[in-house]
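User:
Can I borrow your eye for a moment on a structure tokenisation matter? Would you put together a sequence-and-structure record for a protein of your own picking? Please set it down just below, with no commentary around it:
AI:
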Amino acid sequence: MKKVLLSILTLSAVVAAVSCNGTKDAEENFFSRTDQQLFIGDDIAIANTQYGKVRGYIMRDTYTFLGIPYGASTAGENRFMPAKPPQPWEGVKDAVFYGACAPQSVMRYPNNIATFLDCWNYFDMTEDCLNLNVWTPGLDNAKRPVIVWLHGGGFSSGNSIEHHEYHGENFSHYTNAVFVSPNHRLNSIGFTDFSGVDPKFKDSGNVGILDLVEALKWVHNNIANFGGDPNNVTIIGQSGGGAKVCNLVAMPETKGLIHKAVALSGNATSAMNKEACQALGLAILKEAGLKPGEMNKLQEMPFEDYMALANKVQREFAMTNPGLGRFGFGPIADGDHIPVGDFFQSDHCSDVPLLICTTTAEWPSARDDAKRHASSKEEVIKMMAQGGGRMAPALGEEKAAAVYEAFAKIFPNKLPIEINDLVASSRANALRTADLKVKQNAPVYLAWFDWQPPILDGRLHAFHTMDIAFWFMNTDLQVSHTGGGQYPRNLSKKMAKALYNFMANGDPNVGKKTGLPDWPAYTTEEGATMILEDKSYVLNAPDKEAVALMSR
């Protein structure tokens, strides 16, 4: 079982520098406060849900509810089945600490820089994992915009509070919004397709994403009791969470549940091949030595044993069977819940605006290597020719030189190693997502995050997940990414206001004064992209040449 490295509650009480008393001075430093910070008691922070009352607490004027059930346990006969509602309860249920996360492979956290940087938070792990957290400024009828955070980790790992930057208090308080973050089923527990074994399990391959639909239904039915507007809900996710965003927007059953969408460093334009996924399900049953009428034995198997079985079969199956994608278990194009073919072709999502952001150094290749970080242009071009790090394709010598020059034109002040990392951070998939979505009625906005953290001797750069803390006003909470203080907070305030404007109005320019330049909507022809850094600016199709060269 994963170990708790540091309690979010304790950490936020110590270092949160944005949460403050009232709205008169929303940037008051935490340590200047002399009033009581935490309020918890029998009659404090009580909210109604459709299944019963929940009790949270008030932390620095923000009502906090953690681990609220939105579905029943998915263990036993409920494994591989669509979520069932939780059992209603009498009295008041405590919602004061995070609920269990979904079963997943156990990670180990050695004493090293990677552990220090990301500060993983894992508490309990069970199949009773359908729960969510809510942060809100008030239990009133204010109808605040609602944001629903979908965690990363592909479709195989992660949880709603995995990193400090996922915390919702600061964004809720600073922007006057309601922040929700759900857990849901993952990996082979949430995405094994047994529809070819027994029609009873026709939805088994998509129950993980269907859990999120149920979470959104819970938001629709209950969020007004938490001061939110059920008719103004934005979903946002990073990495695998960004792909979840795209899948959910493409699902017809989310019409009326999603009103805006934000995909950070992750996207999707189609789902996995159903025939391949069905064949994998049959192979898992065969490896288990079971007959179609014995699916109950797979449901009763300890989840650790089932996951080990399914992963073994998937690895072997993927060697000879295309169509499973990078990870083997994920949303499936069943033609029922998730469309076959390209996303964003249906009118049901044509009025949902989309904001897409990636970073300029998703996978920094020299974070732990000062010598590599100081590589010359010639050395970097050789790296690029051979494949210069994680997610970086081998370009060959001739193409590598041309791609290097194309990226160097965009960012002439970057070090050669940063040009290498731009290759691994290609926006090709993000641009394809934008080009598909922009054909619909609602606008699309693009951003490229390029803020440089002043830690690790400048070798960290704008890496994968870096921007999350900025969108959510958590740069003083995820200090291991940002260094903390006013320097990152300046940009964070601008980005958080732009995100709020997008939530409230579908346009990052309309509403609060952000301090950013005017942010044009994206078009395939112009390709307007907001470069987010200390002094943000807009470029049109900045990497058009580089992306075209890489695709040849």
Q: What stands out?
A: The CA atoms of residues 232 and 417 lie 42 Å apart.
